[in-house]
Amino acid sequence: MEEKFRRSLYPELDDIDYGIVRALQENARLPFTTIAKELGVTEKTIRMRVQQMQDDGVLSLVGIVNPVKAGLNVESFIQIAVEADKLDDVVEVLNGIVEVRLIVLTTGDYQLFIQILVRNYEELAQFLMKKLNKVPGVTRVNVINELKILKSKFKFVR
Amino acid sequence: MEEKFRRSLYPELDDIDYGIVRALQENARLPFTTIAKELGVTEKTIRMRVQQMQDDGVLSLVGIVNPVKAGLNVESFIQIAVEADKLDDVVEVLNGIVEVRLIVLTTGDYQLFIQILVRNYEELAQFLMKKLNKVPGVTRVNVINELKILKSKFKFVR
DNA sequence: TGATAATTGTCGATATTCGTATTATAGTTA
DNA sequence: TAACTATAATACGAATATCGACAATTATCA
């Protein structure tokens, strides 16, 4: 009785799940009663489905701050080459740096790919010189600055 | 009377705003009455602040689906070099491709940086061969496959 | 086909949201 | 400084929504 499954294993969401996701994608605070009316089921059903999808890690209902409006104007993607035996250590250090939003292990010439957000180019320079280049094991970095976001789509259900 | 400002210009959020953001970051459906009690103000105040932050594009309350749980198991970052005069056209085509989640104009050897999500490597191959390589103006692509996400942090307020 | 578990529905108690009117606060000008 | 204005906060009752316990229904599987 450790694991409990529902209907079938994910990713098999049914129509009701999709209806719920479609609604909450737009507005995480939409009343369950409204969604229920739309989908022709009871509020209780919506409530339970949402709870399960959250428990199962399928759906998160969160508030997101626009980084630019919060003063974080400079976004960069950085590829990092690391000495093979130092990878764990480097990741650990990067993990503790607030500017680092995303760390991904990748294929290719560089092992790590990170995304950072800072207030301005001065902070970017500080990050590169005072933080990233001081991390032992980092052999090479490739900074790709973001000039403009042309598309950003976080909706997964149409 | 076209623009309306509040207190002062963003990014000057005050303590109440930060309190609201901090709470809603964790749970977008947290009752305003609860936040109000915590911050020592009225529910109406919270309601109005949230509405304003949303109107001003500072805060979004959204449902997010875990792509892996939705069957999108392969994520790739792709750098794309484009003939200078074809940039707009390429972006327009990429915009219409469902797999493409993010398009960013960048500095460096490649002009565009995109993020894609597909179900599996077969779909990635199809995307590269049937879609991306058929886009006129694309001269060179560099695919960086994501092996594992080591950190992903979307909270902007501590 | 039964037995069992999981899901959904019903419904009243409680909590939350919403809208209006009123009061307080900050900024501005005479 | 006082009066004025605009903005933001509060008070509060009505309308909605959420929650939880139990019953009914639907799947699941031996």
From TrEMBL, chains A, B:
Residues in HTH asnC-type domain copies: 13-73
Listed Pfam families: AsnC_trans_reg, HTH_AsnC-type
Keywords (A to Z) from UniProt: DNA-binding, Transcription, Transcription regulation
Coiled-coil intervals: none
PROSITE patterns recorded: HTH_ASNC_2
Position of the signal peptide: none
InterPro entries for the chain: AsnC-type_HTH_dom, Dimeric_a/b-barrel, HTH-Siroheme_Decarb, Tscrpt_reg_AsnC-like, Tscrpt_reg_AsnC/Lrp_C, WH-like_DNA-bd_sf, WH_DNA-bd_sf
Classification via Gene3D superfamilies: 3.30.70.920, Winged helix-like DNA-binding domain superfamily/Winged helix DNA-binding domain
Highest taxon in the source lineage: Bacteria
GO molecular function (one): sequence-specific DNA binding
Protein name: Lrp/AsnC family transcriptional regulator
Organism: Brevibacillus invocatus
Classification lineage: Bacteria, Bacillati, Bacillota, Bacilli, Bacillales
